[in-house]
What we know:
- This protein is of the alpha+beta class and about 250 residues long.
- It has two domains: about 5-145, Fructose-1,6-Bisphosphatase, Chain A, domain 1, CATH 3.30.540; about 155-250, 3-Layer(aba) Sandwich (D-Maltodextrin-Binding Protein, domain 2), CATH 3.40.190.
- Helices cover about 30% and strands about 30% of the residues.
- The protein has helices spanning about 5-20, 40-60, 75, 90-95, 165-175, 190-195, 210-220; strands spanning about 30-35, 40, 65, 80-90, 105-110, 115-120, 125-130, 135-140, 145, 155-160, 180-185, 200-205, 205-210, 225-230, 240-245, 245-250.
- A seven-stranded mixed sheet has the order 3-4-5-6-7-8-9, with helices on both faces. Strands 12-16-14 form a three-stranded antiparallel sheet, covered by helices on one side. A two-stranded antiparallel ribbon has the order 1-2.
- Helix 5 (about 165-175) links the parallel strand 10 (about 155-160) and strand 11.
- The termini are far apart.
- GO terms for molecular function: 3'(2'),5'-bisphosphate nucleotidase activity; magnesium ion binding.
- This is 3'(2'),5'-bisphosphate nucleotidase CysQ.
- Its main location: membrane.
Amino acid sequence: MNILNAIIEIAEQAGQAILEIYQRDPREFNITDKADATPLTAADLAAHQLIVNALTELTPDLPILSEEAADISWAVRQHWQRYWLVDPLDGTKEFIKRNGEFTVNIALIELGEPVLGVVHAPVLAKTYYAAKAQGAWLKTAAGSQVIQVSQTAEVVRVVGSRSHPSPDLAGYLARLPQYQLVEVGSSLKFCLVAEGVADVYPRFGPTMQWDTAAGHIIALEAGASVQFDGISGPVYQREQLLNPNFMVSALRQS
């Protein structure tokens, strides 16, 4: 089994662990607030533990940075040339709302750039994946197919956050002559651009590196551009784990 197939399997196993909790009474989600006031559930922790154990067995020499174990100092991280960047449950608010728009994100980072990524949406039964120079793919019950961006749009299809509205997004939309806004949770926003369902994902609110890395490589391999404000070098080799604003676009610049 090659490493990409192994990561797909790990992400899907984590998704199954999440679903087992998702299908319970919501009172059993064990919701608490982290220091940054974002929610944490039993599903986040179960997926985290499964992924960390599986990655450690698969690649024992590679370090892992997960949202649920992110207290690793820059003094240590700055020396990592290859590492796993993981969000065990991206879209915890969507999980709590039970709308199905949450994902498992696993990315392999080399020299600060994503070179492999898997985004698995358990409720939707979809797995998006990509590796550098190997294209982007979507796996469903019917099999796997190559996905590519759409580069023609008379009406710009903009994908935005369902749970994190932004005044800056409203200002961006006001400058477009025609648009359709699709609101969706988690890293699915990257994936909708990658598969040609949306054209632009402008992000003006806060995200963390583990929120974006897997979707980043999928969007790139599908033909989109991904630009972070003020970052010209490696996106994922920085002391600051908080991302600046960014833009994912399938549209050719005129």
